[in-house]
Structure formats: C-alpha cells, structure tokens
Amino acid sequence: MDFFSNMGGMDWSNEQSVVEFAIHRSRILAGSKHLFDEKKVRVLAEKEFARGDRIASMTNHALLTGGESYLVRTNEINVPSLVVHGTEDPIIPYEHGENLANEIPGAVLLTLEGTGHELHYDDWDLIIHSISKHTSLPN
98-106 long-range CB contacts below 8 Å, 24 or more apart? Predict the structure, then answer.
C-alpha cells in the first residue's frame, strides 16, 4: 500500500519514472510461481508510454468508488461464471475469489497456485483452456 499511495506525486510525463513505476508495480503484484522478467516488463512499459495519451489513467480503476450496493447482489448473477484467481494476490486476497465463486450460483473457481494479481503469460494456456471448456458447457 505504501508504494501505491505515492502514485499521486509521480511525474507521469517522464518516461523513465513511468517505466520504473511499472517495473516496481509488476514486481509487487507478481506471485512466486513464475520468474519475474524485468526486461519484458520494461519493454512493455516503454511501448505503453509511447502509445498512451494519458498514461496515468492505467491506475484509474484503483480510485473508483460507488457500486457497493451491487456487492450484496452477487448471488443474482445467473450466467455461467468462471472466477480466475491467484493464491498470492496481494491486492485482492484469494479468499475473496473463493467467496465470489461460492456466492455466484454454479460458478467455477480456477485457482492459479502461486500467482499474484496478474495473468502471467505462463498461465495463459491453462486460462484459455479453462475458458474454452467453461464456455462450451451446456447451459
């Protein structure tokens, strides 16, 4: 939380600052299952900076409020749901994913052991297979 609480003072117009922020953020959000690939994160962050008009907006979802009244209506979801959650998510603990899957009638939980708050490239095959399998089930 200390890291994220300092985002307001960051110079979002400075490429080096943004790239270093992205690397540090990705390192914090990563789980222990996969090796952290700083070079890959750096290259992606540089590309994001080059193409983005408002790069600071990548963090806007962390500032959202409201909608809390819908949280108690989760059990009203009536479509096939697949909850994907890492066991080492430092932002939204794994227990929240378990609870969500339990609250949505008929939901399936895909547990990513050792994964943080990320959809790591090395998990994509499992995630894609699980989505394909889940969406091909008869209603």
Answer: 100/74, 103/74, 103/75, 104/74, 104/75, 104/77, 105/75, 105/77, 105/78, 106/80, 106/81
